[in-house]
């Protein structure tokens, strides 16, 4: 552990790629997708970081079962929390800084902006292949603060998460407009909760609708990264903070997540 000191502003020169995970709508499983992409990339041998800037709903620490460890400082800034002994998956979240996990973050815009600026500038990520930035829903102050601070380094682009229904794809369409206005490259669209994967027979039933994300990608000229079904095994893994990809490598959901992560890597390298 580094000795406590006053952090100074640093850059992200040791971070090869920065990817935003966006959605115009809450409840689409954006944090779940961020977590599973990070795990898939780690299993592919990459060093990954997650910056959780969903200040009002920091759920990723629980999803990765890291609890509420103390965040330390060193000469380079805040030391991220590592989820494994090999330090291949790093995480920073406001969830680590709250005294009470049930405490509500009731902050006005300027305080949120200042906190995000600290997260981006004062975390000593070290060498990473990919930094995933999990954002809150919408196109608000937090998103602008993330972009303003990260653009001092470089943002490779954004992955947009939607569910199949028209009400969700409509909100994500606005997120696409936001990306175009702010000059953020759209790396692709993921359709989450695309059908229900039965844990007994592996059959996939369309509880909602299907194909909304792929259709949106076609209409907007975006890359469709793939579909992830609504899988009870994935849900229970997230609830228990377990590594779904390690636990269920033969599942169709694993194949979907792994394929998306590989497509994303290829996109980042071109």
TrEMBL record:
[4Fe-4S] cluster binds at residues 198, 201. Keywords: 4Fe-4S, ATP-binding, Cytoplasm, Iron, Iron-sulfur, Metal-binding, Nucleotide-binding. InterPro entries: Mrp-like_CS, Mrp/NBP35_ATP-bd, NUBP2/Cfd1_eukaryotes, P-loop_NTPase, YlxH/NBP35. It is found in: Cytoplasm, Cytoskeleton, Cilium axoneme; Cytoplasm, Cytoskeleton, Microtubule organizing center, Centrosome, Centriole. GO terms for biological process: iron-sulfur cluster assembly. ATP binds at residues 24-31. Its cofactor is [4Fe-4S] cluster. GO terms for molecular function: 4 iron, 4 sulfur cluster binding; ATP binding; ATP-dependent FeS chaperone activity; metal ion binding. Its main location: cytoplasm. Gene3D superfamilies: P-loop containing nucleotide triphosphate hydrolases. One of its GO terms (cellular component) is nucleus. Belongs to the Mrp/NBP35 ATP-binding proteins family. NUBP2/CFD1 subfamily. This is NUBP iron-sulfur cluster assembly factor 2, cytosolic. It comes from Seriola dumerili.
